[in-house]
Design a protein that fits this description.
three-stranded antiparallel sheet
């Protein structure tokens, strides 16, 4: 499990970088930083909950069971899901917000790549553009460093591998041609 000091370092890597060198929220009306659909939120990675004291008035916390939801098979026990109540303190935002709109991908031989998050197509014009090279190089480099650090944790690596194999399976599905 990643220790608190490691999470602080990972968060700090992403404190002063954004997907574009300008405010990308002007492209979409900051929809990714709002509850664009009721109940939208994100899962925290294993151990990430140490970055919060669970009394934040800007977050709604839920515990989801790995037995009731579909998670990486190596994950056990509660997984934390958080919903934002509106504007968050930028320096406190969860890891998923810090790396949006990219997601990690591990090739079958274990090479780490960053890809645009397909699930963000409805809300993010950067993802709809379909070219990760449009994103700021500093942002991509820092997000990569953060993920390289995080996948040292076996549970997080298992999750990234599990999600990557799901992406591999989806890549050949006919509906993908619509995107």
């Amino acid at each position: 499990m990643i220790k608190l000091v490691d999470w602080k370092r990972v968060y700090k890597l992403l404190n002063d970088v954004t997907p574009l060198s300008v405010d990308c929220g002007k492209l979409c009306g900051e929809v990714c930083c709002a509850e664009w659909e009721s109940g939208v939120g994100m899962y925290l990675l294993p151990g990430e909950e140490v970055m919060f004291d669970r009394t934040e008035d800007w977050l709604i916390w839920q515990e989801h069971s790995t037995e009731e939801y579909e998670f990486c098979p190596s994950w056990r026990g509660p997984v934390y899901f958080v919903c934002c109540r509106g504007v968050c303190p930028r320096d406190r935002r969860p890891f998923a917000c810090r790396t949006f709109p990219v997601t990690p991908y591990l090739s079958p031989v274990g090479t780490l790549e960053l890809r645009l998050e397909d699930a963000a197509i409805p809300v993010c014009p950067l993802v709809r553009a379909g070219d990760i090279r449009l994103l700021d190089r500093r942002f991509l480099a820092r997000a990569r460093l953060a993920w390289e650090e995080l996948i040292k944790d076996p549970l997080i690596r298992d999750h990234v591998e599990w999600e990557s194999r799901a992406l591999d399976r989806q890549a050949g599905e006919p509906w993908r041609k619509l995107l």
